[in-house]
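Re: that backbone. Tokens:
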């Protein structure tokens, strides 16, 4: 019997291109959805700023701190860098929750604890730095940087720093060596070694007190200005957390406006989508409890009290059980996690037209084909991976298909080409079903990460469908 065309299509799997197949109405929605997201990227460039932005939005949407009795829409923040949000379902929490888990830290360049010095060679005031996460160091020189972070003063008060974002504020720069003199110093070295981390010092200031013969007068003058502006002394830097992030704004990209370029989309594109999925169109009475979790320190291994390895998320779920008048003893907490299903919401690598060779196209993520799903992560023979169970992956695909989501499966590069991981394995160690999925980016970890509006929107719809699933 001769196959007719529709039957043939049903037999073979083919991913679908959003711009080719989606109704025009949906395409318009995808374009509109991107606008506030761009604004979010510009307002939340660090983990602390993302948490603050999120709490603001949650309060506007009638969420309360978890300590408020009787509330069904609750959140908890920890150390201002990590947080979890829940909408409690009609089923017991211990029947399991649906969670979307993202991270809110991004690669950047931190100031060292004792950063300020006067460089005698150049006669300039400078700041020493220590990069955070997997950056390509050459990208961070010769680019305007803004200073974000907190200084905790001696009296315990907190000073929030955000300098270099407004047009009328100064920015900072790590100057790169001019090509004329770079031959021995840079051109003969490997790309990874060409910029030495010890040479990523910020040119901070150049003035000094007029007519003064003071020793290190430039550094002294910088300290004087800092004291006048912020009321701080040099010692206040030693305990501070100060981060340099690209000073530029996220914006529309491409002749057709179909993309977004901006810093920190790994992983704030997932955080934003998860948040929107939770607060937009919450069902009156969801059956299963819905949770969104923002972790910190993912880019450096997820350790510490705010990383995904921390006790925080277990503690949150334990408190949630108690809040819902359920047993929150150790056994019931374990069972709750084991009954739960989680999307580890993190970005993936989409095929870059300049470097298709690092991927195997049939199993790689493409722009505009929707949310990218990684059954497993890891590297070199799936080493260190989380590997979603077939039963769970099939269930998620069923949820996505029923909701008409554009989705695709992919791996992070060719086998043995490299690899990477997310927080998925940490949460699956607690016994939950966990699947990695998120938006495919080009230029991940760069100052200008690129995403597709079709994938941004598809991923939002995917998280929404998953959170609501019964
Ligand atoms: Mn990530
Ligand atoms: Mn990353």
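Recovered sequence:
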């Amino acid at each position: 019997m001769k196959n007719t065309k529709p039957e043939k299509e049903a037999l073979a799997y083919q991913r679908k291109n959003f711009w080719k197949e989606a109704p025009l109405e949906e395409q318009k929605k995808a374009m509109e959805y991107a606008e506030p997201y761009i604004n979010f990227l510009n307002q939340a460039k660090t983990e602390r700023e993302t948490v603050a932005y999120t709490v603001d939005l949650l309060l506007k949407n009638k969420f309360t701190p978890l300590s408020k009795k009787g509330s069904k829409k609750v959140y908890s923040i920890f150390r201002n860098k990590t947080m979890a949000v829940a909408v409690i379902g009609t089923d017991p929490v211990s029947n399991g929750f649906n969670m979307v888990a993202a991270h809110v830290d991004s690669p950047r360049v931190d100031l060292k604890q004792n950063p300020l010095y006067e460089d005698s060679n150049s006669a300039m005031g400078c700041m020493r730095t220590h990069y955070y996460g997997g950056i390509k160091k050459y990208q961070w020189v010769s680019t305007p940087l803004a200073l974000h972070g907190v200084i905790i003063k001696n009296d315990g008060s907190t000073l929030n720093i955000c300098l270099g974002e407004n047009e009328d504020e100064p920015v900072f720069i790590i100057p790169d060596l001019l090509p004329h003199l770079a031959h021995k110093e840079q051109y003969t070295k490997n790309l990874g070694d060409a910029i030495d981390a010890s040479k990523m010092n910020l040119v901070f200031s150049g003035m000094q007190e007029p007519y003064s013969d003071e020793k290190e007068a430039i550094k002294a003058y910088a300290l004087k200005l800092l004291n006048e502006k912020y009321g701080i002394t040099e010692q206040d830097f030693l305990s501070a957390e100060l981060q340099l992030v690209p000073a530029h704004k996220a914006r529309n990209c491409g002749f057709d406006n179909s993309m977004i370029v901006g810093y920190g989309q790994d992983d704030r594109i997932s955080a934003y989508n998860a948040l929107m999925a939770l607060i937009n169109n919450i069902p009156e009475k969801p059956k299963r409890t819905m949770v969104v979790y923002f972790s910190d320190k993912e880019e450096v291994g997820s350790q510490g009290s705010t990383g995904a390895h921390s006790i925080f998320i277990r503690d949150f779920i334990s408190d949630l059980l108690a809040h819902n008048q359920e047993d929150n003893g150790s056994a019931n907490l374990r069972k709750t996690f084991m009954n739960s299903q989680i999307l580890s919401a993190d970005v993936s690598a989409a095929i870059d037209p300049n470097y298709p060779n690092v991927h195997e196209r049939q199993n790689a993520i493409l722009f505009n084909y929707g949310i990218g799903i990684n059954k497993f992560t890891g590297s070199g023979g799936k080493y260190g991976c989380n590997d979603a169970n077939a039963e769970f992956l099939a269930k998620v695909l069923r949820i996505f298909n029923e909701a008409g989501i554009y989705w695709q499966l992919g791996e992070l590069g060719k086998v043995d080409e490299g690899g990477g991981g997310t927080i998925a394995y940490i949460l699956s160690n607690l016994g939950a079903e966990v699947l990695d999925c998120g938006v495919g980016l080009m230029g991940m970890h760069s100052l200008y990460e690129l995403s597709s509006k079709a994938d941004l929107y598809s991923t939002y719809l995917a998280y929404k469908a998953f959170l609501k699933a019964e």
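The chain has two domains: 5-106+263-467, 108-246. The mean pLDDT is 96.
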